[in-house]
Each structure stands twice: as structure tokens, then as C-alpha cells.
UniProtKB/TrEMBL annotation:
Gene3D superfamilies: Glutaredoxin. Belongs to the thioredoxin family. DsbA subfamily. This is Thiol:disulfide interchange protein. It is found in: Periplasm. InterPro entries: DSBA-like_thioredoxin_dom (IPR001853), DsbA/DsbL (IPR023205), Thiol_disulfide_DsbA (IPR050824), Thioredoxin-like_sf (IPR036249). The keyword RNA-binding does not apply. Residues 1-20 form the signal peptide. PANTHER family: THIOL:DISULFIDE INTERCHANGE PROTEIN DSBA, THIOL:DISULFIDE INTERCHANGE PROTEIN DSBL. Residues 62-173 form the DSBA-like thioredoxin domain. Keywords: Disulfide bond, Periplasm, Redox-active center, Signal.
């Protein structure tokens, strides 16, 4: 009798789990991009902005989640050709000089912290504090490598129709807007659900029979 109750209890847990995993609906909790991102970009892509406090607060949680799930993850600065460009340039410059591990958190401070220093003086202040070679940094700032990366991130921002940050794209197709989430916990539940449910592959095109 006891074993029967245990079995029923486990079955009920499974049914609740199945219900939870299928309770997220397209159009309500996530949407589908009209034009998917390029293949191979990452399992999960975050469009972010260094002036976004939510992006900063989510960073350690996302880091732990990525390690737990063992998935590929990409950070793309959201910007247009005229808006939020300097913050995106800071991101790409840090990548080009190989200083992202140091400057990722620092970039948030540069953009968000109130201080009298502005522009290049403000950036130089934080570069000095963190031992970053300023000459190397400013050489990369306007380099072809950074310009090319800027063009790419602007194009991806436009393609994904990102108008607010953070925005997450899963499997290059599913778009998750954090403002639609009731909590941070639900955000990660939706991300878990979408990571575990990649879109079905498109049917292969029929090949024309070869002529003899």
C-alpha cells in the first residue's frame, strides 16, 4: 500500500513538472523572430546596455546559470547607428585588446556612476584605476576591428528588433523580454524551457532528379 502511494505521489510530481514545462506560451512569455539570427551565434544571446542596471544585477546570476547549463552564451551590446554607440564601442574595444574580464564590470561603472569627469577623461580615470594600457585602448577605439564589430552589433540589434535591455534570444529564434516576466525566477524558467526545446528544423528541400 505504501509503495502504491509513493508511486502515485511521484507520478503527480511528474505531471506537475510536465505542466510547468508546457505552461509557457509563444506570444505571452516569448516571441519568435521573423528573421532568425545567424546560425551558430550561441544557444542564448543577451542584448544588453552598460547603462542598464538590470543588466548589471543579472550578470552574476546569468554567470552561474550558464555554468550550470553548460551552454554557449553571447553578449551583444544593443545600439543603433546613433544611440548607445559609445557604450557599444567600449565593449568592442575591451574585446579587441583582450581586457574584457577586467573591463566588463568597469564599463558599467563608467556609464552609470555619477562623477565630474566626462568623455575620454572619465574612461581614462577607470583605465588607470584598473591598470589598462591607455595607448593600446585608444588605438583600438577607432580601429577597423572595432568598427566592424560595431556594424555587426548594430545590424543584429536591428534584426532582432531589440528596443529595450536586457533582451534574450534563445536558439537564435525565441525572443524573451524581461518586462513580460513576473519575476527573475520566471525569467530563468522560461530560458530553461526554451533551451530544452529548440525549434524544429526546417524540412529539407526536395532535390530535382538528376538527368541521365
Amino acid at each position: 500500500m505504501a509503495q502504491r502511494f509513493i508511486l502515485l505521489f511521484l507520478l503527480s510530481l511528474l505531471s506537475l513538472t510536465a505542466w510547468a514545462n508546457t505552461s509557457f506560451k509563444e506570444g505571452e512569455h516569448y516571441t519568435r523572430l521573423a528573421q532568425p539570427l545567424p546560425k551558430g551565434i550561441a544557444t542564448v544571446t543577451e542584448f544588453f546596455y552598460y547603462g542598464c542596471t538590470t543588466c548589471f544585477e543579472l550578470s552574476p546570476l546569468l554567470g552561474d546559470w550558464i555554468k550550470e547549463k553548460k551552454i554557449s552564451f553571447a553578449l551583444i551590446p544593443a545600439h543603433s547607428e546613433t544611440a548607445m554607440v559609445d557604450a557599444a564601442r567600449m565593449h568592442h574595444t575591451a574585446q579587441v585588446i583582450g581586457a574584457m574580464n577586467t573591463l566588463y564590470a568597469v564599463n558599467y561603472k563608467i556609464v552609470q556612476h555619477n562623477m565630474k569627469l566626462q568623455g575620454a577623461d572619465r574612461i581614462n580615470h577607470y583605465l588607470d584605476l584598473n591598470g589598462i594600457n591607455k595607448e593600446l585602448y585608444w588605438q583600438a577605439w577607432s580601429s577597423p576591428q572595432v568598427e566592424q564589430r560595431l556594424q555587426g552589433s548594430a545590424a543584429l540589434t536591428k534584426q532582432a528588433q531589440v528596443f529595450k535591455t536586457p533582451t534574450f534570444i534563445v536558439h537564435g529564434v525565441y525572443k524573451v523580454d524581461i518586462e513580460k516576466m513576473s519575476s527573475i525566477e520566471q525569467l530563468f524558467e522560461v530560458l530553461d524551457f526554451l533551451v530544452a526545446n529548440p525549434p524544429a528544423p526546417a524540412p529539407a528541400l526536395l532535390q530535382k532528379p538528376k538527368k541521365d
